Structures are given as structure tokens and as C-alpha cells.
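Section 5.1 Outputs to date
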Amino acid sequence: MTVFNFGSINIDHVYRVPHLPAAGETLASTGFHSGLGGKGANQSIAIAKAGGKVVHIGAVGPEGRWTVEMLAQAGVDTDHIATLEIPTGHAIINVDDAGENAIVLFHGANTALTQEMIDSALTQARAGDWLLLQNETNLAFQAAQAARSHGLKVAYAAAPFVADVARRMLPVVDLLAVNDIEAAQLAEATGSDLQNLPVPEVLITRGAKGATLRTGGGSISVPAFPVQAVDTTGAGDTFTGYFMAAIDAGWTAREARTQAAAAAAIQGTRAGAAQAIPDKAEVMEFMKGIA
């Protein structure tokens, strides 16, 4: 099976800081690096490194072709990534000494995607494939509708979180992925508790507390793997990508979440986003060492 990821591609500019800056504060960084990021790109690379087949649907600007090359080198199908006359999306990321981050996004080409791009990519799809979405592109709702018309299942990682956007997406989503803060905000916005959200499955990531999958038959939780965090940027995307690859391959929900938790734990011990995502062999070795 295949995961079609209608997702963002960003160039990340990462600044190491002694603490996250307060309002009005000028703060000298202690380090800097630039690399590939964006929730969509991170998740596509995680799926590919987990052994899944993933087709990325997205766009970059003229200066962003190297990001497409990096995706291809990681094993992502990049045939449906367009080059537009709009700058590539980018993010300014501050990371403190505890590994926590604060991010400012410029959407760029990520919000210039077209219905034609969606329709062209989905001609390759088969019933039972997945479409994965985030909140860093335009046309997410339209992409979900198109996917459903082709018989695909829809997974939606509702970040960066906007309650009204997430609420609109719920009727066209089969799997919703949120963190615990986003889950609480969505429950408040819909006037419903998490057990009654109109989505077949809800995956809630809880950072160091692990993750929970809520289905119609109840919920299953798995703990996080204890590690010393260096940079948590992209850890949630790594979890989502590994989880999607495992579910698409037919793993049980518990197996999928355990592997995803291990991958996210490794990623969080490294600097950067996409370049810090481990491959499946590393994850399997890590899990053997913990067992």
C-alpha cells in the first residue's frame, strides 16, 4: 500500500539559545544550522525510513530544489512536487538547552498548491491507500474529499493547531493525530469529550508520557522511551510517520505505536528535524537494547 502525503516542505533555520526568548528580549544564539524541515517533509521521510512507500504532494520555490533531492535520497517519491515562482516555505526555530522549541513559520509555496496537483497525484492511488495531511498547506479539506472519492483513508495531523480548521476537517478524517494540548483544545471547541469526537480513531501523543490511541473499542496507551532530549523539533512528525508506515503495513496499533515511540525518542536525541530521523534498523536496534 501507499501513503500519499499532501504536505509542507520547509527550509529550517535553527538557532540554539540558552532559553526561549521572552517578549521584547534580544538574545544571542549559541549555535546555528539550516536544513530540510516542514511537518510534511519530516513525516514523508519518517515513513520512507520506516520502510513505507510514500508519495509526497507539495511544492517548493526555485531555491528549494535541494530539499526535493534530499527527500528523494531518503526514499520518498518526489514526482508530484512542483517548483513554483514563490519562495520555499521556511521556519525560524529557537531551541533551548532543555530541547524545547519555539517556531515561526513562513508558508511560501506550501500554500500555493492546486487542485490539479492533488488530482494528478491521486490517479496513482488505489482503494485502501492513505492520504496524510497537516495544517501547513492550503486545500487540505479539498484533498481529503478527493482522496475519499478514490477510496483512500485519510489521516490528519492537526498541527499547527487551529480549532476551527480542525473542527471542519473531522467529517472527512479516519485517523486524527494530535498532542494532548491540541486534543483538549479540540474537545473544548467541539463541545465534546475525546471519546465522542466524530472520528473513527484518535492518536494522542503526550511527549514524555507516551501516546494513546482511542478507537470505538476503547483506548490503548504505550509509554515513551526515556532519553536525554537534545532537540524535540520534528519528534512528533517522526512518531506520526513511523506510525503511518506501520499501520499501512498491517501492524497492530500497539506494535505501530511502540515502534513510533522508539523512533521519536531517537530523533529527539539529535539536533535538527529531517536529518535527525532514524532509519528502521536503528529503531529495531534501539528497541532490542531497551527490552
